[in-house]
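Task: sequence design from structure.
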């Protein structure tokens, strides 16, 4: 995993895992402006030939670290990130249920975004 570079493309709403110049996985997310701000992951995708190498977990961990550096929270809607957070509660603080509701409402109101 040390060869994997993780980079944030905030404009595109993608946290990408890059190996030898190729994007091998990513988390699609949006920034929710409600009550401070939150990163809201919606989808985690790893290319089939790179599955099982810990890439998705590295992306999820970096998303939470990125949010912590920015002083904001993560409101996960992505099923993978939800499960990852449940397995890593020390690294992934639980999101306020009201914030999750607002994130879901934003997603419903912006169906063309994802």
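Answer:
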């Amino acid at each position: 995993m040390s060869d994997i570079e993780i980079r944030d493309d905030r404009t595109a709403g993608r946290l990408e895992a890059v190996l030898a110049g190729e994007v091998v996985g990513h988390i699609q997310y949006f920034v929710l402006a409600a009550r401070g701000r939150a990163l809201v992951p919606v989808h985690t995708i790893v290319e089939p030939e790179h599955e099982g190498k810990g890439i998705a977990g590295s992306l999820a961990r970096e998303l939470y670290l990125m949010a912590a550096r920015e002083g904001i929270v993560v409101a996960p809607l992505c099923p993978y990130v939800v499960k990852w957070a449940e397995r890593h509660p020390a690294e992934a603080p639980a999101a306020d249920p009201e914030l999750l509701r607002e994130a879901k409402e934003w997603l419903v109101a912006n169906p063309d975004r994802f």
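Residues 83 and 89 are 10 Å apart (CA to CA).
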